[in-house]
Amino acid sequence: MAYKIYIPIDSTALSLGANDVFEAISAEAQKRQINLNIVRNGSRGLFWLEPLVEVETEKGRVAFGPVSTNDVEKLFDNEFFLGREGELFLGLTDELSWLKNQERLTFARVGITDPLDIADYEKHSGFKGLKNAIKLEPQLIVKEVADSGLRGRGGAAFPTGIKWQTVLDTPSKTKYIVCNADEGDSGTFSDRMIMENDPFVLIEGMIIAGMAVGAEYGYIYLRSEYPDAQHVLNKAIKIAKEKGYLGSNILGSGYNFDLEVTRAAGAYICGEETSLLESLEGKRGMVRYKPPLPAIEGLYGKPTVVNNVITLATVPIIMDKGALFYADFGMGRSKGTLPIQLAGNLKQTGLIEKAFGISLKELLYDFGGGSFTGKPIKAVQVGGPLGAFLPEAQFDTPLDYEKFSEINAVVGHGGIVAFDDATDMAKMARYSFEFCAIESCGKCTPCRIGSTRGMEVIDKIKEGVDQDKNEQLLRDLGETMVNGSLCAMGGMTPFPVISALNFFPKDFGLEKKETSA
Amino acid sequence: MLHLIKFKYNNEHTLIIIFIKMNLSESQRVTIEEHVETFLKKPGALLPLMHAIQDSLGYIPEDSYPIISAAFNLSIAEIHGFVTFYHHFRTSPSGKNILQVCRAESCQSMGSEGIESYCKKVLGIDYHETSKDGAITLEPVYCLGNCACSPSVMMNDKVIGRITPEKIDNIIKAAK
Q1: Do A385 and B105 touch (CB under 8 A)?
Q2: Going by C-beta distance under 8 Å and a sequence separation of 6 or more, which residues neighbour residue A348?
Q3: A330-420 belongs to which CATH class?
Q4: How far apart are alpha carbons B171 and B176 in whole angstroms?
Q5: CB contact under 8 A, A14 and B82
Q6: Which ipTM value was assigned to this complex?
Q7: B111 in any annotated domain
Q8: Which of A413, A409, A428, A419 is nearest to A341 (CA)?
Q9: Whole-prediction pTM value?
Q10: Does B74 lie in the same domain as B128?
Q11: pLDDT tens-digit series, residues B98-138
């Protein structure tokens, strides 16, 4: 009898040596003549415990971690393959509080299945949403997505149903589905996890989107920093084609849909949808003026759905279980769940899918276990490099698009980066400008010039040169960028800068009382 | 030097003759022309084309611009503008390996600044430079999606998390 063992193939697990562990376990099993059936699954998202090795038992899967190659002999001595308690034993995986306290909808299969085993995907409710969608008129698919309350998970939180309706209503022989997989925000990795660990769910979501709006071709615009995701997606597309899920007359439905992966080239700005479209067309990624909206004139001037990976990967479960099932999660106008990514200076980091409404405090301390370094958490940045820094006084804020907006912050793509109290927030503010200067497309002046001038002004404040005047100048510059920039790059860079200035003036050398929220 | 470039488009042979001094080797020129032919009819060809050239040659020689310009009916300025817009593309050869150090916020919160300066110190170079022995080119990168295990670096196509100076030493040793 072969014992079933799971060793993740997710790139964060690999970055901590999961392949070495796989090789060591395989070699040791051979040496001891123990028959193992090793599945390379995705990651469960408990990254501080990676490489996390699981063993299938009668009671369910049990976990061991973090496993290093040095532990392998001891694991075998203890017959870990029987699921026996011992060193590194963590118990039943599903009972671990990190996982038990989540609501995994989009990530339902992530870490459980072999990413490229399409039979495994089907066994775990895969393509159920697609099969339901095939039976519906396009307008009813759009209605279902609209009723679910799903909003763009890339960061802008625009209602997906409205975007799809616009594309459906715009007459054109050719339309496109573009998946924005240019996940460049620091602190985010949920897109990468979906693409590496459950690629078929993204493909399924894109096929449904194509059926809903009348598009027959799709592109996944994937950042070049994700080579592993590229390999997995290309293999998954090939498998889906062989099984009749892509191509012409999908499952005999009369619908046609095909798609390809386009590798980006390291420009952060191409995560902005119009810049992305320019890049896909083979041009510099210069931001376009809006209107016209991409939903009306998008790729090659045709009506185009541009959605983030998570948005598209959430569509299958909505079509499987229904709009109301999904809309039942969440709070206010933030319906459903958000895959939250805990990153930076935290003890326990990884992926948490939760209904909207959970507070930062719960995430940072209950899930995150406090800072990695053991020092107090000074601030967190939510929503990537364009998101505001939040001080401890704001940690009670519930994760909700509107609540965050009230305090001039953004939920964005759900990435949370924690900083301990050794962090110089003025330095972080300066870095925000520096990043903007490096990544600006250069089309509009506030972003192109403002970012460089911003660095200089912060330097002057820190050097004590005309502090009052320069502080005012910095605030004016922020306002100009917010109101005068063409896109979110220049328009949001002031969020982290001004929040750092407001909450941590001492770091700028300003002798004022720290203001509260 | 006369270069005769021939492309097949819509089953008709188009002859394009350009006069330009090119420093491309014969094999480089053939490779570039093959890639151009592969992507000639593809919409949005420039992005996959440049990746193909860089993947084959290690960089995009500026001397390839006239060939691409003629094939796609674009000006050389447009091609230069395209290539230089994207951080990933390089117009000169790199070292044998490319070491990218993440500078983004999550890695900063876990001490990436120290890793950056350590790499620069032990390699004796700054960003965008190559070590004297030609083994490693050092590049900054803004997020590798490995933020749960910061700080991170990427050696060629391999991400390494929870990076320490000792791990950097091992990477450099293995690259020599």
Answers
A1: yes
A2: A46, A48, A98, A342, A367, A368, A369
A3: alpha beta
A4: 9
A5: no
A6: 0.95
A7: yes
A8: A413
A9: 0.95
A10: no
A11: 999 999 999 999 999 999 999 999 999 999 999 999 999 99
